[in-house]
Design goal:
Length: 142
């Protein structure tokens, strides 16, 4: 196995993932959040509660910029801040009910776009796609 060629295919794949993800989430603009705020909310959707440092690391923002965006999201009622019971200095953020509802609307739009992309695939191709995604998740994106 040529690992260099495999790596090039991986780079092409991840680039395509970013491109398709951007295309599918274009409708987020209707939700009155910036692309950076959307990334934060999306991260919170799958990993909560989270600290500002975890968010900054994941979405590649400085900690001061992350704190500013979290303040704006809190003011919009899309996330909530709590204090860690084990360490009172540590702040934790999670989606509010409104934030969860907004992400539900966004994901419904994304699902429609995804379903359009896979429309026309046979049942066998859909099963292959599912297995490929499971393999990528378990072996590469763990």
């Amino acid at each position: 196995m040529d690992r260099s060629a495999l790596f090039q295919k991986f780079l092409t794949f991840t680039s395509s993932v970013h491109e398709v993800s951007h295309e599918l989430t274009r409708g987020v603009k209707n939700e009155d959040v910036t692309p950076v705020q959307y990334k934060i909310l999306e991260y919170m959707m799958f990993s909560q509660p989270v600290t500002p440092s975890e968010i900054a690391d994941c979405v590649d923002l400085s900690l001061p910029n992350t704190s500013r965006e979290l303040r704006k999201l809190t003011e919009k009622g899309l996330c909530e801040k709590t204090t860690d019971n084990a360490d009172r200095r540590r702040q934790l953020f999670r989606l509010s009910a409104d934030g969860q509802a907004m992400m539900g609307r966004v994901f419904a739009q994304v699902q429609q776009g995804f379903e359009q992309r896979i429309d026309g695939l046979t049942e066998e191709e859909l099963q292959e796609l599912e297995k490929a995604l499971e393999l990528l998740q378990s072996k590469v994106f763990r």
